[in-house]
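Quick one:
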Amino acid sequence: MKAWLRPGLLAVCLAGSLGLGPAHGQAPASAAAGEALYTGRMPMTGKLRGHEVALPAQVVVCSNCHEAGPSVGRSSAAYAPPLDAQLAQRLSRRQGPPAAYNAEVLCKVLRTGVDPALIVLSQAMPLFEISDKDCASLWHYFLQRPPGGKAPP
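Output:
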């Protein structure tokens, strides 16, 4: 078998082309690291569009808005849509044309606030300073979450 046809090599090439593999000596992305970023156990840096000052790390935690909160003082519904495996499906979101996410698109959305259908997200969504590795980790975590965004048992 030719070296370039080996399944392992193909997987590494595909992972690299999707932004899922390690870059420049970094450890590979993992769903566990993605969960830590999503829940705030690993801090992220973000700021509001049009502002220069970074928000406190506890404010830019994904689960603050993308999970249903306690029904004390606010609705028990999530402020923002669930982040789960359905992101990879070609769906219409925010009344835009159908579009699907992948690791690269997720990174672009987190950094620019513009979704794959070219819809500008709410100004409440922070713009993140996030590495490709951390984006890939979040992506791996979202792919393992069932519809509705509830973590598997």
